[in-house]
Amino acid sequence: MKPLARPARLVPGARVAVVAPSGPVPEERLQPGLDILRDWDLDPFVAPHVLDRHAEFDYLAGTDADRAADFQAAWCDPDVDAVLCARGGYGVQRMVDLLDWDAIRAAGPKVFLGYSDITALHEAFAARVGLVTLHGPMAAAADFLKNAKAQEHLRATLFEPETVRTIASSGRGGALVPGRASGVLLGGCLCLLAAELGTPYARTSARGGLLCLEDVGEETYRLDRYLTQLLRAGWFDGVAGILLGSWVDCGPCAEVRALLADRLGGLGVPIVEEFGFGHGAGALTIPLGVRAELDADAGTLTLEEPALA
Question: Which of 14, 177, 200, 211 could form an S-S bond across to 10 if both were Cys, CB 3.0 to 4.6 Å?
Fold first, then answer.
């Protein structure tokens, strides 16, 4: 697995588009998120359909065609320096096939940010564009609005990426399996990685990578199902190391931990738990596509080069 191309860091005055490729966005969260971006001297604008709600399926932010059109227009606008997702939820897999990936590739690299359901877009950018993307807090997500730690880590990554070359675990965990490993960062939400198997927008395996895994609101047996599916498909074969993030509302902590040890411990690679990215409070921003070294015992991730150029 090779490192991906890095987009340029943001500078004061950068134009950033806020899009909603998945679930509907609460307006009361959107405006405070925009205010934070403005406080960072960014110039945010909201895509036309961000506040839409699908007429039949209210878990979607408008129609698939409109969500895709918003994303396409934002990415292909030469005046836009970054595309930030407002929130996750569900819906990316319904619209990703509607995107013109040749046009997206031709538009050139720019910053892309999101997590949760946005994992499907992270995978598509890696497979179709070869671009580093950021797994981090979204503009209308509750943690981004309320947590100064999440805000500051994201701000530093966007503007001063050389200051966050070493990312230290913000969680309470340590090494589930001790050791060091190097590889290219990839991953995201476990259920989305399992759902992406067999699609043209996902990697065929995590071979050579440092795999980041987290999820939210999944009972232990469902996490078991996703992990077992990925194991049976050979997707974990050759993985270099694993970082485990948050498992908010995923069942008793001890039970989830036992499951992760049971399903992943046999891979024989370093594994760090509760690293502090994902749906938990104060979530760290992780650059997917950058080569890094994991020290599971110390709970640190050291990037070979800054997340952004």
Answer: 14
